[in-house]
Amino acid sequence: MTGGRWWRAVGSVALLALLAWVGFEIGRAGTDVEVPRAVGPDTLTGGAIQGKRIDRREWSLDFDTLTMSPDGTQATIAHVRDGRLHRAGKPDVLMKADGVTINTVSNDLFITGPVSFREQIAPGRVRTFKSVGARYQGAARTLELDHAATITDGSATVTVQEAKVDFRTGQVDLGRIEGVKPGTKG
User: Fold this and answer.
1) Other beta carbons within 10 Å of 90
2) I need a surface site. Which of 25, 48, 73, 103 has the fewest CB within 10 A?
3) What is the pTM of this model?
4) What is the H or E stretch that residue 186 is in?
């Protein structure tokens, strides 16, 4: 073999080795990347959760089961045993509900099931709200009862189509009213 032929043979072998190596690497590409597993919701059994405003506590809920969405923006609670809507300088509004969905970004509560709220207006004077659903807007500190609601204040009971309660001012806006005066037949 002459010098030129020998270099051609060596070059051909080197070229084939290079092409084989490139082909191997292309075929292997991506196999070392780990595919992340799908993240599901997290579930907690029995506990308490609270929302806060910049100035102080906003609400707290004792629950049986809490399911947090994978992105953490929504929590769904089953069976709120002891819920509290905190009011500055006033007693907490007590709440019980079958279910609550929390928007963790806005601190709004979407309340379902039979739901009841108990508000102490003055010493010895309690007002209750009962409905099948409500929404508490954390920033505005308002409770919207967008279903028929029964409101009891002392011995007086009023059923309204809807109601909106502003816990900062104490103002209550009522929808269409059906009422029974104490001592009369309904």
Assistant:
1) 13
2) 25
3) 0.70
4) none
Chain centroid to CA 45: how far?
Answer: 16
Residue 55 DSSP class: S
Extract the tokens encoding 164: 């909106």
Going by C-alpha positions, the residue among 158, 155, 151, 160 that lies closest to residue 183 is 155
Cβ-defined contacts of 177-182 (< 8 Å, 24+): 180/156, 181/156, 182/155, 182/156
Quick one: DSSP state of residue 182? T
| Eight-class DSSP state of 14 | H
Over the stretch 151-167, which tens digit does the pLDDT of each residue have?
Answer: 998 888 889 999 998 88
For residue range 5-49, what is the model confidence (pLDDT) as tens digits? 878 888 888 888 888 888 888 877 767 777 677 677 778 788 888
d(Cα 167, Cα 178) in Å, to the nearest integer? 23
The burial of 134, by beta-carbon neighbours within 10 Å (0-12 exposed, 13-18 middle, 19 or more buried), is given as buried
Q: 113 with 107: CB under 8 angstroms?
A: no
